[in-house]
Amino acid sequence: MDEPRRDFLDSLLTTPSPSGFEADVQRVWVEYVSEFADDVRTDEYGNAVAVVEGGDPSVAFTGHADEIGLMVSSIDEDGYVHPSRVGGSDRTVSKGQHVEIHTDDGVVRGVVGQTAIHLRDPEDDEIEDVVEQHVDIGAETETEARDLVDVGDPITFDTPIRELAGTRMAARGMDNRVGIWVAAEAARRAAEAEVDATVYAVSTVQEEVGLQGAKMVGFDLDADAAIATDVTHAVDSPDLDDAKHQHGEVELGGGPVVARGSANHPEVVRLVREAAADADMPVQLQASGRSTGTDADAFYTSQGGIPSLNLGLPNRYMHTPVEVIDTEDLDAAADLLAAFAERSAGRDGFGVEL
Q1: Coil, strand or helix: which one is 39?
Q2: Pairing outcome for strands 284-287 and 197-204
Q3: Which range is least confidently modeled, 37-51, 72-86, 180-194, 239-253?
Q4: Fewer CB within 10 Å: N-end or C-end of the chain?
Q5: What pLDDT, on a 0 to 100 scale, did the predictor assign at position 244?
Q6: Structural domain ending residue among the three candidates 123, 157, 191
Q7: CB-based burial, 306-327: b 16+ in 10 Å, e otherwise
């Protein structure tokens, strides 16, 4: 990944964007795509669509901008903040973490309290649910705490980007800032190659709370096909042998993952696999017999059916503050989508032949 592209990725990853509070990261994304798109538009909830004009058909490359997190639910008389979940936050990884509370007046720092090991009953070491945990912001009274934070303020883990060996890196919120990076980069590469198809790059909001942004965008998105880029489970870390039977043998650095079944339109799947084969790009396959759990599930039932695909980006430790990806998978995904757009040029839609 070259330096400008890495700078863009870092900007996305360091900009907090819990579901319902995505505006700041959407501004970063819009600024980037505005450099090459012919048009950029946003809607009332902050979904963003960039258009690279071309011929028929039109294809949309999408990702979701929101991340999981926490939210101030209540403040007790001793000044402790009690959180609730935003999306699928994992109660087992929150205790003992540094956090940032994002208020109208700026960031308030705190820690999620964890009783010292010396003071815990070794026979009762259950981890409380998120709503039973507490954030210590240093306040001594409820009044002092309420002067600093409000109920409803979003909370994110204060986890920096970490470089790992080779082309791998760790950060919170890879899910799914890497997806909107790929969507933007695929559109930029298609524009640079002057493909004859029209390409939409889409960054949706509120996927983690029910694919809500994709439902909004899909209502009037004028695309003949949509490919949702989102993280998928890499199961090449210890103790995940059983997970391979459910999620497939997805490996970090093995290339993007093409899902098959359910929302994944067979013609779009075929064309993506052919584009990969022609360009000698590595791809992995994944079975999706019921649903993808991504924005593809919303797009493919919009407007009577938009041929859709979930393109997975291998990710270790999903929904934790230390998600790990390989940047080579991201570059490969962006190249693959641009190649798909070029291969699709001149087609009369993507419908199955009966």
Answers
A1: strand
A2: unpaired
A3: 239-253
A4: C
A5: 64
A6: 157
A7: bbbbbbbbbbbbbbbbebbbbb
Residue 149's domain spans which residues?
70-157
Q: For the segment 223-262, what is each residue's pLDDT rounded down to a tens digit?
A: 999 999 999 999 999 887 767 666 678 999 999 999 999 9
Please choose, from the candidates 306, 154, 339, the residue with its C-alpha nearest in 3D space to the C-alpha of residue 218. Answer: 306
Residue 343 CA: distances (Å) to CA of 113, 195, 273, 275, 329: 53, 9, 11, 7, 21
- Which two structure tokens, joined as six digits, stand for 72? 């101030």
DSSP reduced 3-state for 130: helix
Q: Could you tell me the two tokens for 152?
A: 């409803």
Measure Cα distances from 124 to 16, 121, 300 in Å: 35, 5, 47
Give the Cα separation of 243 and 162 in Å (integer). Answer: 26
Q: How many domains does the chain have?
A: 2
Residue with tokens 């929904």: 319
Sole residue written with tokens 């009332």: 44
- Within 8 A by CB and 6+ apart from 279, the residues are 335, 336, 339
199 and 338, same domain (yes or no): yes
Distance (Å, whole) CA 170 – CA 324: 4
Record the tokens describing residue 281, joined without a space: 């790009």
Question: Residue 252 carries which side chain, given as an amino acid letter?
Answer: L
Mean pLDDT, residues 112-141 taken together: 92
Residues 137 and 181 reside in one and the same domain = no
Residues 127 and 110: their CA atoms lie apart, in Å, by 19
- Alpha carbons within 13 angstroms on the beta-carbon side of residue 237 total 11
